[in-house]
Design a protein that fits this description.
The protein has 69 residues and is α+β, with helices and mostly antiparallel strands. It has one domain (6-67). The chain has helices spanning 19-25, 51-67; strands spanning 6-9, 12-15, 34-37, 43-46. Strands 1-2 form a two-stranded antiparallel ribbon. It is elongated and about 45 Å long.
Amino acid sequence: MTILRVERMGDDLVVRLTREAQAALGLRDGDTVSVVRSADGGVSLAAPDIDHQLRAERSRAVLRRLELR
């Protein structure tokens, strides 16, 4: 696990990724990431190649709601 600090940059809050975190996630300057909050309050940072999991979870949630009708 890598612990990162949230810092203020102008009006925004930013999380600076260490070189180790960049390498572990395979991220480069300009990449897009997803921040996902789980039901238990945890927060995950997903690299672009993992973003499909978030879309799949949302699709399953929509299907569950449609089944309830």
